[in-house]
Amino acid sequence: MTDFMKKFSLEGKNAWITGASYGIGFNIAKAFVEAGLKTVIFNDINQDLVDRGLASYKEAGIENVKGYVCDVTREDDVKALVGKIHEEVGQIDILVNNAGIIKRIPMHEMTRQQFQQVIDIDLVGPYIVSSAVLPEMMERHEGKIINMCSMMSELGRETVSAYAAAKGGLKMLTRNICAEYAEYGINCNAIGPGYIATPQTAPLRERQADGSRHPFDQFIVSRTPAGRWLDPSELGAPAVFLASHASDAVNGHVLYVDGGILAYIGKQPK
Q1: Nearest-5° angle of CA 82, CA 19, CA 155?
Q2: 206 assigned to some structural domain
Q3: Global pTM value
Q4: Are the C-beta atoms of 32 and 240 separated by less than 8 Å?
Q5: Which of 57, 187, 198, 265 could disulfide-link to 65, CB 3.0 to 4.6 Å?
Q6: Domain count, the chain
Q7: How many helices (H) does the chain have, and how many strands (E)?
Q8: What is the pLDDT of residues 98-132, one digit of tens each?
Q9: How many other C-beta atoms are found inside a 10 Å radius of the C-beta of residue 163?
């Protein structure tokens, strides 16, 4: 490996990816391992989900994995887990704030409790976890924090007021962590995924009985210059870049991996 390519290596590093028992976080973990990551650390909210995650990693041939039960909205539990990770694994070189939820409810029908739950998990959670790992990163004068933003960090859409508020806030939290901790050698950036082809979105991508696209599928394809949904694996390389020394001069940035949605006004109707 050339000295240049070594800048993209994660060899010897430990990464904590919250909520990475499946989905986007799991795919990012796999990319990290391919880049040489030493240990994958993940958490989920109950033991059943953690066990399923561990089984998925084993099936993928990834053995150096530690899974923990932890709710990212519970500050004391997060602090306790950070101490446990330091004891059982070692330092946390990379943090990916991936855990999140979305509720699709019209704003005038949404309860304050429902709104608050999304804010707590998608915005307060990354604040709590980042705050817990920062002191040790500051001592080492090195660390990488990656937040998972969204198209809704920039755009509004019907029924996702809480999610948009949380992801917009996460964009600014990303910038402020940079502003406050860059002097300690810490990089905080974010990834803004576009629309990803996952098992959850599969029903939206199936052809209708008459052979036409599902209306939402048609909307996404027409709104994306690439003309397609993105594959979860396409988030891996951007995440590796932000987690590695290759991005040491990149800080406070949201890297939108969206197939060009934010650059595009959409197709003109025929």
Answers
A1: 115
A2: no
A3: 0.96
A4: yes
A5: 57
A6: 1
A7: 10, 7
A8: 999 999 999 999 999 999 999 999 999 999 999 99
A9: 23
